[in-house]
Amino acid sequence: MAKHTPLHAVHVAAGARMVDFAGWDMPVNYGSQIEEHHVVRRDAGMFDVSHMLGLDLEGPDATTWLRGLLANDVTKLHEPGKALYSCMLNPDGGVIDDLIVYYFSPTSYRIVVNAGTADKDVAWMRQRIAASGANVTLESRRDLAMIAVQGPNARDKTWAALPDMRAASEGLKPFSAARIGDVLIARTGYTGEDGFEITLPAARAEAVWNALAAAGVKPCGLGARDTLRLEAGMNLYGQDMDETVSPLDAGLAWTVDLKDESRDFVGRAALVANPARRKVLGLILEDKGVLRAHMTVFTAAGEGETTSGSFSPSLEKSIAFARLPLGVEPGGVVEVDIRGRRLKARTVKLPFVRNGKALV
Amino acid sequence: MSNVPAELKYTKSHEWIRVEADGSLTIGVTDHAQEALGDVVFLELPEAGRQVAAGEACAVIESVKAASDIYAPVDGEVIASNQDAVDAPESVNADAYAAWLFKLKPANAGDVAALLDTQGYQAEIANA
Question: Where in this chain does the record put each Lipoyl-binding domain (chain B) (predicted)?
């Protein structure tokens, strides 16, 4: 039985095409995925991301415990509401999940994890709490809904729809959040555009969704979310990395903080013992066709593989992420095996698109 | 609800077939197929002169989501493919029955009779 978010009935009533995503019945589009993609790059779109799980971590040992759990270091966070992106690794250095952690105080954090990994993440965290004896509590917040409002006009339209959120969110810097009663409004997202991710009690989700729609924010499905994050150079868990892949080989070395040598987080020893063997670059297909995941890439330095690929509506070309030998540089030409044919692609630095502009 | 015109023939693999006055066959993908595929962004069509067998994968349609094969409905020879559709793949989404993909000269004119009619195809997609 597929799980439903608090907005499920709204999507069905809107005629959304629904698909299974990690056990959740979710909208893939409400008509045209490409139009939804362009709306986010040019105006404002919204996504139901309530399938992701929020977790509240509280207690005197919260900071110490997170420093042992995560590959990134939460002591970078000083201002209440500031967010940090991190991988949570297994002892072999593989990625259990990638997540966002919001800092409220040294004894209070909100963690947001992926839908498909939520159960194993919580089990792992609870096991780590029990084993360490840390004085913390971890609470799953399935009582919450999450709506991502994204695009150059996302903030203005959010304020038009939800004027009571304006004062608290107007001064937010990117990657920061504010709490307004039981609502968390964060200037974060997964599209490469400005906007908010709003976490709120499930009972209010439909009213807020409808108010945003009335203010001209267009509902968008997971299809557009995927092409937007791909253009923005953002990894998707389960596709671009998983428990068998080191963050150093998945383009996520920037999220691994080794500065404090006394900080012994899970996976640290494995990462130190096994330096990066691969690098992640973007590919832009020069020939006609569409790049997909798991295509073989032929380079002068050896073979590699695509991890995500699709058609980029912004560039009107096919793009992909590729895990390649360390010797491959941006600006070169490689060949990709697309169903038995070798087609030419150009290597580029990620991202492809940011804030509505092509960077490649 | 998908559009399934009465004057066409269909396959279980979601191709539509129009029998022309000269006996040649015009082939495309159904409205149901384009809806399931989502935005179409790339087409690879067979060249004129290619001999194809019934059920043979002879074209590729790629949407934002995935690549899908298109199959020859009967044995025959490809006599044309639609360059306009290749140049504007979104035309398949706009009108799947106007955006034909290729034309076949069937090896046996009688083979067409075995294809699905409107009712047969409607039953097929209702069960899917």
Answer: 24-105
What residues does each domain of chain A span?
8-52+142-231, 277-358
Q: Which residues pair with A53 in a beta bridge?
A: A113
By Cβ distance, the residue of A33, A288, A289 closest to B38 is A33
pLDDT digits (tens, 9 = 90+) for A112-151: 999 999 999 999 999 999 999 999 999 999 999 999 999 9
A8-52+142-231 against A277-358: fold identical = no
Condensed to tens digits (0 to 9), the pLDDT of residues B34-59 reads: 999 999 999 999 999 999 999 999 99
Determine the distance in angstroms separating the CA of A15 from the nearest CA of chain B, rounded to an integer. Answer: 11
Quick one: which of B39, B43, B61, B68 has its CA closest to A223?
B39
Residues B121-126: contacts with CB under 8 Å, at least 24 apart: B121/B4, B121/B10, B121/B30, B122/B4, B124/B10, B124/B12, B125/B2, B125/B4, B125/B14, B125/B30, B125/B32
ipTM of predicted complex: 0.84
CATH 2.40.50.100 fits B9-108, yes or no: yes
Name the one residue in this structure whose structure tokens are 């560039």: A315
Pull the structure tokens for residue B45: 């069509």
Superfamily of domain A277-358: Aminomethyltransferase beta-barrel domains (2.40.30.110)
How many angstroms separate the Cα of A50 from the Cα of each of A108, A126, A202, A232, B54?
Answer: 22, 22, 9, 21, 46
Tell me how many residue pairs between chain A and chain B have CB atoms under 8 A apart.
Answer: 42
Distance CA B83, CA A235 (A): 36
- Secondary structure (3-state) at A236: coil
A311: nearest CB among B60, B64, B93: B64
Instruction: Confirm if A347 and A335 have CB atoms less than 8 A apart.
Output: no
